[in-house]
Q: What sequence folds into this?
């Protein structure tokens, strides 16, 4: 029986967040340069997006480039930015065919102009699609996001639009880059690393974490479905005890 057959479609998470890790190490095992790993990583992006949409996941958020990734060799950064442009261009048709809406979170203003422009065009061209929202976290870090939230909330207080006493979970939630999506119930990280790495720190508060040794370019639909079966076998207590659920 495949993992897909074992999934209970009535208990799917609405939102899956992914840290796509291991492209470089995957390339090394093939005796190739790191960019070869990223190119094959794009194939996994396609496969996982398709696999998630196929079973009815509503939101898929992929960590594609962190604020710390600018510190990589310039050649690799340039290659990743170029890859992003070609990927968005090449995948537009498929995204529309499958009614997938492209979205991005992060400090997008720092992206190279061509990357930014192509991304915005992709977002605009797919904005009416409603089967699944595919969000790319680009030049994103949770500390950046939370700093922005504090800045915006403080601004509203200063303008007299908000009382300090009224600042609560919902006010913060509404100021996040993910304000229009539910929090991820499941976070998957590939390549054997077991860290959150500055990813969606507020949103992952109650997420189930799933780690696999598989490098991202080898992560496929069955691996995704395996993660979902594992997730469905867990008891999510949200601070309560089993008997209360
Ligand atoms: C992590 O592997 C991967 C990244 C930092 C970039 C992810 C990018 C892609 C999958 C390709 C482009 C994506 C899109 C959406 C167009 P790593 O380089 O950190 O691998 P390592 O830990 O083995 O060095």
A:
């Amino acid at each position: 029986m495949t993992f897909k057959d074992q999934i209970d479609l009535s208990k799917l998470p609405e939102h899956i967040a992914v840290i796509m890790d291991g492209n470089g190490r995957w390339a090394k095992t093939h005796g190739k340069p790191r960019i070869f790993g990223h190119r094959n990583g794009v194939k996994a992006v396609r496969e996982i997006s398709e696999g998630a949409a196929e079973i009815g996941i509503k939101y898929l958020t992929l960590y594609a480039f962190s604020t710390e990734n600018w510190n990589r060799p310039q050649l690799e950064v340039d290659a990743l930015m170029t890859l992003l442009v070609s990927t968005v261009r090449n995948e537009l048709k498929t995204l529309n065919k499958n009614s997938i809406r492209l979205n991005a979170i992060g400090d997008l203003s720092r992206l190279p102009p061509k990357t930014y422009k192509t991304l915005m065009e992709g977002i605009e061209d797919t904005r009416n699609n409603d089967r699944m929202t595919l969000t790319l976290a680009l030049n994103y870090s949770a500390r950046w996001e939370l700093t922005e939230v504090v800045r915006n909330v403080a601004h509203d207080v200063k303008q007299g639009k908000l009382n300090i006493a009224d600042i609560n979970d919902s006010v913060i939630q509404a100021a996040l880059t993910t304000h229009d999506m539910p929090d991820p119930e499941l976070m998957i990280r590939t390549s054997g690393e077991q860290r959150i790495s500055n990813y969606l720190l507020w949103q992952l508060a109650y997420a189930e974490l799933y780690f696999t040794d598989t490098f991202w370019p080898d992560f496929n639909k069955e691996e995704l479905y395996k993660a979902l079966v594992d997730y469905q076998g867990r008891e999510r207590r949200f601070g309560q005890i089993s008997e209360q659920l």
